Amino acid sequence: MTDFDYELVKVCSRGGKEFYHIYPRTPLTRLPDSLARFEIKKRHEKYVVVEVDGYDVTIFTTGRMLIENLPENSEAKAKAIIEKITA
């Protein structure tokens, strides 16, 4: 999945924390195999929540992701987390 093409959108900034949505340009047919490398904190039929670098990332079966509670001005960190998940 190293060719993962996506749009990164900062959805809000509250109390010094940022939240990002990641929208794949092509919907995924399944969750990435690379998720096995991460601790799965919650599993549901439509999404999983994994911890990456200390941040919760919700990955929906469509490929959309939500990264929560990043520090301010963390677009580069959000991209690095996406790279780890899709590598």
Please give a structural write-up.
This protein is mainly β and 87 residues long. The protein has a single domain (6-86), classed as 2-Layer Sandwich (TATA-Binding Protein), CATH 3.30.310. It contains 1 helix and 6 strands. It has one helix at 75-86, and strands at residues 6-14, 17-24, 39-43, 47-52, 55-60, 65-71. Strands 1-2-6-5-4-3 form a 6-stranded antiparallel β-sheet, with helices on one face. It is globular, with a radius of gyration of 12 Å. The chain starts with 5 loop residues before the first strand and ends with a helix. The model has no long low-confidence stretch (mean pLDDT 88).
Strand content: over 45%
Please give the count of helices: 1
Shape: globular
What is the CATH domain class? Alpha Beta
**Total number of β-strand segments?**
6
CATH architectural grouping: 2-Layer Sandwich
Estimate the helix proportion, in percent.
10-25%
Q: Provide the number of structural domains.
A: 1
Largest sheet: 6 strands, antiparallel
From the N-terminal CA to the C-terminal CA, the straight-line distance is: 6 Å
**At the third CATH level, what is the topology name?**
TATA-Binding Protein
C-alpha-based Rg, rounded: 12 Å
